Amino acid sequence: MTKLKVGLLFGGRSGEHEVSINSSRAIAKALGEGNNIDKYEVLPVYIQKDGVWQAGDIAQQVLETAKPLATETNNKKQLWQFPPQIADVDVWFPILHGPNGEDGTVQGLLTLMQAPFVGSGVLGSAVSMDKIAMKMAFAQAGLAQVNYVAVNRSQIWSNPCVFPKLCDEIEKTLDYPCFVKPANLGSSVGIAKVRSRTELEKALDNAASYDRRIIVEAGVEAREIECAVLGNDNPQASVVGEIAYDSDFYDYETKYTDGRSQMHIPAQIPDAIASQIQEMSLKAFAAVDAAGIGRVDFFYVEKTGEVFINEINTLPGFTAFSMYPQMWSASGVTFPELCDRLIQFALERHQ
What we know:
By secondary structure, the chain is α+β, with helices and mostly antiparallel strands. 36% of the residues lie in helices and 23% in strands. It is globular.
């Protein structure tokens, strides 16, 4: 039996470079276990922080040591020179978190290569990455969300007359507390919870340094519930899980510091609420034209029984201990089987 060569694409130019390496290590291990041993051959392809692609021994070294390369190039021609090994790839498994990885850019490149790849295509990736476009798609699908205001950098970094009026509008529409977020960054980077005009002004200025599109959302006292989706045109939803944490909100430090957050799978919520979240997850998956993989996050307001969709992540963290694989494990799908299914869905969609 001829093995499929899986191009494991990891690293990337986003702030989640190290997270991507950890995810890729887990996937490589899973593809070398059980039935996967006879089906797949992993070909690691590493994108340095400067955007240069590496394969062969260099990529294997990063995969084994989990240490990113510090190399930086001043030769822009290297950015357009791909390792010859990529011509041997049968199917791609991109595990690039954040900008330049799950926003449609790499997906467009892989589409031009005419090779199947795991996950959403250009449209699903781009819409899901931009929180403003994503929320517009959710609204069109009739999914309940918290109130929000969309803002452009030009409104924040404007003349002294425009910015105060913008803050007035935000206060009138949302009140405090509220959350200021760059529209196109993952892993809670650049996000701030604000409770006053001074904090709002500072948070808007900071968010504008990360992105030209910013979103401000109403704060809500709620439990954070997540659901994993797997499949293409007829996807399935996993059991739901809950993220609990000891900080003011689920920021970057809390997310990636051991012991600061806990997963509860399945979430201890009423069955009717769990079913509602699963149904909304599938609806959200279809609304953004996602494929293969997706983790959908929600706010559950226990006092009122309301459920609000927060966001969808088309390339969520993918270590064996990440929320997405853990929810599928609790649903009866092992980590190696999950990796296998994702590759098979990639082949199916390409055909």
